[in-house]
Amino acid sequence: MVSLKLIHCRSGQCLVGRTGSCRHGLVDSNSVCTFVETIRNIASVKIKVGFGYDVHRLVEGNLLMIGGVEVPSTRGAEGHSDADVLVHAICDALLGAAGLRDIGFHFPDTNPGYKGISSLVLLHRVVELLAEHQWYISNIDCTVVLQFPKISPYIYDMQQHIAQAAGVAVTDVSVKATTTETLGFTGTGEGIAAYAVALISNA
Ligand SMILES: [Zn+2]
């Protein structure tokens, strides 16, 4: 909260809100120092950052959904929904930023209603939940960790699907991909992981 004393000044440039006097000599009871008003408005804007992480096992014969795009692969992710690791990480980043728990809390895998559901539907519901609490997405940045197949040809489609479900511009969604140089469970093809950060604001 701001503790500046409001100064009345027609100049619009008054910088002396803290002193209670106006160096422009334009103080009267019918005008408002717009500089002080601007400071007050900026100070009322809150921004928060959230982080999300998800992992899914890869198995023969399953679809590999990443960012709402079906990536051609002999191995796909195992899970209750469509097992979209990237969208799950994004949901957790958004929920975390808003302090609204996590994706498992809102969409438990014990609920048969979520069996096979598109994770983009879940993302859309998360965004609606944030809006109910007056939180709006500023931007999303994420990284998919996968040894194979290469997903770079599908990155732009993923960004478009995510942006559409989240109600933001595609330029506010960044998707990156990396490998772990054949190390660990992602390196051997045993699993897929994703990390995401999201910035939200109340304005
Ligand atoms: Zn998941």
Task: Write the element-wise H/E pattern from the N-terminal end onward.
Answer: HEEEEHHHEHEHE
- In CATH, the homologous superfamily goes by the name 2-C-methyl-D-erythritol 2,4-cyclodiphosphate synthase
Mean pLDDT, rounded to whole units? 86
The percent range for strand residues is: 15-25%
In total, how many domains does the architecture comprise? Answer: 1
Can you count the beta strands? 7
Bound molecules: zinc ion
CATH topology: 60s Ribosomal Protein L30, Chain: A
What does the overall shape look like? Answer: globular
The end-to-end distance, rounded to whole angstroms, is 16 Å
Poorly predicted residue ranges: 1-8, 15-20
> Tally the helices: what do you get?
6
What top-tier CATH class fits best? Alpha Beta
Q: Which radius of gyration do the C-alpha atoms yield? A: 23 Å
Structural class: alpha+beta
The description of the largest β-sheet is: 5 strands, mixed
Give the helix proportion (percent range). 25-40%
* Largest sheet, spatial ordering of strands: 4-1-7-5-6
CATH-defined architecture:
2-Layer Sandwich
